[in-house]
Amino acid sequence: MLKAHLFPTQRLDEKILILKRRHWLIVFFIIARYTFFLLAPVLLYVFILNILPFVIDRLRHSFETGPILTLALSLYYLLVWVLFFYAWIDYYLDVWIVTDTRIVNIKQNGLFSRSIAEVKLFRLQDVQAEVHGLLPTFFHFGNITIQTAGNETFAMFEQVSSPYETSREIMKLAEYQKKHHNEEEDEIQKPQPDQGTPTNNTDTTYYGA
To answer: The domain containing residue 130 runs over which residues?
Structure first.
């Protein structure tokens, strides 16, 4: 499922070593926020029923208010579900993948737009991890910035768990790939033996006149 839906460019011989999404606390905040929005009309009804009961009585005796409230409530819940679906898709489909040869940044932009970028591990110059704030420090999540040659930012792993450990692991993989890549280049650049003129090792005997 991961290969078919989240990593369509994965090669057959490629191994996924690290896969990151945003921290589970972000999902908790999303669910809590939209649960509150779903319960808000009920809480508002209970509040009015206990504090302003005459408003409920007027609404019950109005023939036009019922259909209008039903329509407004239906539109409200539809909007809440659409926004929740959007937030969930944005969380679930934003994925950062580190394989044995490259880093793949999969970014969901809205409901119908998706971008996939990649960089070879041996091209990495710097990997920085940052944790800011009380909750990120307590729950140990933060951002990881991936920089390539010229200090250009390739990608940022946003609000991922264990940022310091992950950044160190990425740097280890990058150093290994750089060493392996340099060895391959040195092997290619080695001078090859000259095979242009064959050497004649046959002894020649000269018989004088």
So the answer is: 2-22+94-186
